Amino acid sequence: MINALYEPFPESIFVDDIEYPIITDFREWFRFADMAADTELSDRDKLLMMTQWLLEPPERITSELVTALCDFYKAKALERESPEYDDEDDEDEDYSPSPMPVLSWKIDAPYIIGDFLHYYRIDLLTAEMHWWRFRILFSALPDDSQMMKRIGYRSVDIGQVKSESERKRIMKMKQLYALPFELDEDDIGAVFGGAM
Predict the structure, then answer these.
(1) Residue 22 carries which DSSP code?
(2) How many CB atoms lie within 10 A of CB 113?
(3) 124 contacts: CB under 8 Å, gap ≥ 6
(4) Of 109, 169, 158, 159, whose CA–CA distance to 138 is shortest?
């Protein structure tokens, strides 16, 4: 974990003791997310395209290189280290579908742009910013910001809401702010009891 108050954000990633300078502009990492989510691209094409975020092409694409790129995207070095989790007991649990998405950089763009302008006076359409700085500012948006309201409603577990009137109100808001969602094959199989 780095301390963002005084440690500089990385300008490169390290894989097997080799330094790879990397593109750090926040806009480019939205493109990375779009590329990773593109269902029309094959996994092979995605692997080849990932090298576009490196300033120098690697000799070969390894799983360590892909992991390092994904860790940079997630800004893993900014996360608090958590204790190791022993998931041996989870092997017997039933498969459950992926959770519904709560954020889409593309669909939520107008609200993100508006919130940054409103709360930080940063115009994301003209700003130059490191991806990790963007991530820090995004996570610090107040709960009453347009974006955090949307994420809040999208992430509510309606089964945990006791009051029927509140449950109805939240369901309306969930529908209003819902993101398009497609189930993958494993999720569809789980819904139909593994029949796929």
Answers:
(1) B
(2) 15
(3) 26, 112, 113, 116, 117
(4) 109
Query: For tokens 């502009």, what's the residue?
Result: 25
137 SS3 class: helix
Q: State both tokens at 85.
A: 């989790």
Dihedral sign of CA atoms 79, 83, 86, 89 in order: negative
Low-confidence ranges of the chain (pLDDT < 50): 90, 92, 95-98, 183, 187-189, 191-196
Chain position carrying tokens 């996570």: 139
From the list 165, 157, 119, 153, the residue with the least C-alpha distance to 139 is 119
Is the Cβ–Cβ distance between 4 and 78 less than 8 Å?
A: yes
Q: What is the pTM of this model?
A: 0.79
pLDDT, tens only, 90-114? 454 554 444 678 899 999 999 999 9
Helix, strand, or coil here: 125?
A: coil
Among 147, 165, 167, smallest CA distance to 157 is for 167
Return the amino acid letter for 178: A
- Contact predicate 10/77, CB 8 Å: yes
- Cα 169–chain centre separation: 27
**Residue 159, both tokens:** 């089964």
130 half-sphere exposure, CB direction, 13 A CA radius: 13
